[in-house]
């Protein structure tokens, strides 16, 4: 039995090394050495829990191996693997898997999500330690990765009250409209200069999201010295280091190895140093020349440090959150939305008819024009249902023992809410794999719940409970005005397939966020 487990582990690692990056290959090689060293010890280690206690734990898939646990059952798209495993082996929406050395409970139904995120929210509101986040997020003193406690509550209050309140989001409308106007002008210029030429919409939409977030955070100096591009670069690197199923998260002993410290931590420390140098430069400028009434996020946070007991490093950590969450969510959802519209031309036509029904030619659609566009909001919600930016949200962590439907969830257990699976659950959604914005039109008047707080937790693109994303309104406003103007000003087609109605490839790659494998190339035409 021991030899079979070790052989299976070896073949699993060999396959992973063959398909991973050089960093992953190196870490996996180290992991193999750990297996050789520890396999005999772990193979004979048995739990002391009684049969009764075992029965109280959530059901688990068969085939668990020493050291790697159920890793060999998880494919390149873990959200899909967990959905399929839960359908076979889970019960009451709960399933216990061992991802490497870490026991992880996977939540796959609205009822189980309600138990975790509402009924027992106080138990699961914390986060597991993440060594990379500790480096990049100033010892995880941001909002996303900070453990639940007094500091997190204070930091969260600052963000909710002063940075991302409804009033503040509304106050940024002219900045959003200006950034949209620049993108529309650029597309018009390119479309007239080279009719029929495809544009890289991934780059354009990513640039728009980055520029607006930078403008909100930095104010009018957001393009100074190319800072908008630099912040976007740092955001992408940080997301890649934090993304997906990292070995150090599921084999905690790796975090103490010299090779891990040299390879992964050195990269994280390099990125952290770049963030820190940039923030120090900004803070120096703002402390010596910014108006007291300025409403950019840097100035607001610095002015609130004393009131909320924040250090300068705390301010920097919160700013990293603003960049990473604000940029990634908005541009990925816009890209997925455009891709789905290209694959569903009848919906594209219906959306354009709504947006263009203003009765007169407008320079651009402003946020004041959006109030009657229920189908636009429904289209964005449907995009988020099928393509939640973070398929597992961020991991939750139990701080004490808890029972859900008779199952024991021990303290210090990692909990993953499969938001991707919730959005495609056939028991909750009619034709769950189809792109149907109409499902979010609640009545004949087309009134849509744009708050996305859901009554039954079937739909959780921004999470729920204490850990719900505070930037929900900020992100939705960023997406809505841009998509409206893309629909208003241009007709769209696929390169080399103009007039055929051909669609685009929706193949995905998994990480901290889901994204399409290929860049979105589309041909704009001015009607």
Automatic annotation (TrEMBL):
Work out whether the entry's keyword set contains DNA repair. no
Read off the InterPro entries from this record: Cyt_P450, Cyt_P450_CS, Cyt_P450_E_grp-I, Cyt_P450_sf
**Which Pfam families does the record associate with it?**
p450
PROSITE patterns listed in its UniProt record: CYTOCHROME_P450 (PS00086)
Annotated positions binding heme: 469
Quick check: keyword Transcription in the entry? no
- Keywords linked to the UniProt accession: Heme, Iron, Membrane, Metal-binding, Monooxygenase, Oxidoreductase, Transmembrane, Transmembrane helix
Q: Which GO terms describe its molecular function?
A: heme binding; iron ion binding; monooxygenase activity; oxidoreductase activity, acting on paired donors, with incorporation or reduction of molecular oxygen
Question: What does this protein need as cofactor?
Answer: heme
| Family under the similarity heading | Belongs to the cytochrome P450 family.
Its protein name is: P450
Source organism per entry reads Aegilops tauschii subsp. strangulata
